Amino acid sequence: MPIATVNPVDGETVRTFDALSGDEVERRLALADRTFATYRTTSFAERARLLRAAADLLEKEEAEIGRTMTLEMGKTYAAARAEAAKCVKAMRWYADRAEGLLADEHPEQRDVEDSGARAARVVYRPLGVVLAVMPWNFPLWQVVRFAAPALMAGNVGLLKHASNVPQTALYLGDLFRRAGFPEGAFQTLLVPSSAIEAIPRDPRVKAATLTGSEPAGRSVAAIAGDEIKRTVLELGGSDPYLVLPSADVEAAARTAVTARVQNNGQSCIAAKRFLVHADAYEEFARAFVAGVAALRVGDPMDEHTDVGPLSSEQGRADLEELVDDAVAKGARVLTGGKRPEDRPAGWFYEPTVLADITPEMRIHREETFGPVATLYRFTGLDEGIGLANDTSFGLSSNVWTRDAAEKERCVRDIEAGGVFFNGMTASHPALPFGGVKRSGYGRELAGHGIKEFCNVTTVWEGPED
């Protein structure tokens, strides 16, 4: 894929970029390594000052960077501005809390004495240069939720962003530079995916984090494993959305529409499989289908648009293949299921709901990255949880119920990194985020996220010290 901004509204190439030369990549790697040697010794107060300065700049430039994100990948302008505001919030959250999150930990004195020590503590130290391989769907947020904790921990970052969001990628590198971070603390590498293998293999790079597809995660994890380096992976998702008989069905259906089509349906944590108890199925299906059918598809810069285009022509083609395969094998199209006739240019696809899904259909197993929902009926909690877990993914889940026992059962038995009751999955700086199974491993955000790229160091002092 060329490194280029291509407007998904009309398919026109806006701007192309040359990939960095091998010599320039080497220069930036060397700079990152040198910068870490001194940046690691800066105080939390100094790091927080710099991160707050970056947050202030981003807050002032929310409208501008929002337009850039919309241009590059097609999210609605309102969603793009909200993404920028969320990044500002995360930066300030870590600036305020990082020192406390990484404070030395002291075991109980009786355990210290039992170890033969006079004193003992656990210290968190930065690892060094961390490579971040990031996707296009949340081009600002995915990076900031890595960069804010990593920089506050004393690490330095190298960003390899998706090739279709180069202007957002360059903005991020420039943002941290203008905020006053040392040269080399955070650098954007405009390189193709084919150039990635050499970077995590470089001994100056100590760890990698990747958000993206399962094949991309498998590739980076294999390289890091071969080099014995730490990784955090956040990969695909096919999140279940369970509706049980005690739920507020009207609210569940209303929220389900947003949960599925957020970010034009291109979100790993979007609800994708809607599993509804037979006692609530007809009411939910009627309201959900009506809500999806009422969505307005159009120019993402138009404030009245609910769903913009998919990010690429290939992305739409992949989605169409899944829908066509399901329909050919007996799925019913309750709404949508085709390209909108009034949008001949660009990569638009109608918000779609499919029913009568069977295991033989690809859509039952594969992630739908676009505004397509699958609707299932079940008759008991055991069956519902079984359907929820009948996927290779395990990123998050949504459950609608007022029953306390059902809640505890779902927390115990649903195989996912999160269980969100009576609402839709969302990420927040204070809550750890990540998945299980083929959705990846490790956690971002909260205290868990900032500690992922720290050396957990045991300090033991003998009785004669």
From TrEMBL:
Swiss-Prot/TrEMBL keywords: NADP, Oxidoreductase
UniProt superkingdom: Bacteria
Domain Aldehyde dehydrogenase stretches: 3-459
Pfam families registered for this protein in UniProt: Aldedh
Full protein name: NADP-dependent succinic semialdehyde dehydrogenase
InterPro entries named in the record: Ald_DH/histidinol_DH, Ald_DH_C, Ald_DH_CS_CYS, Ald_DH_N, Aldehyde_DH_dom, ALDH_GabD1-like, GABD/Sad-like
Family named by the database record: Belongs to the aldehyde dehydrogenase family.
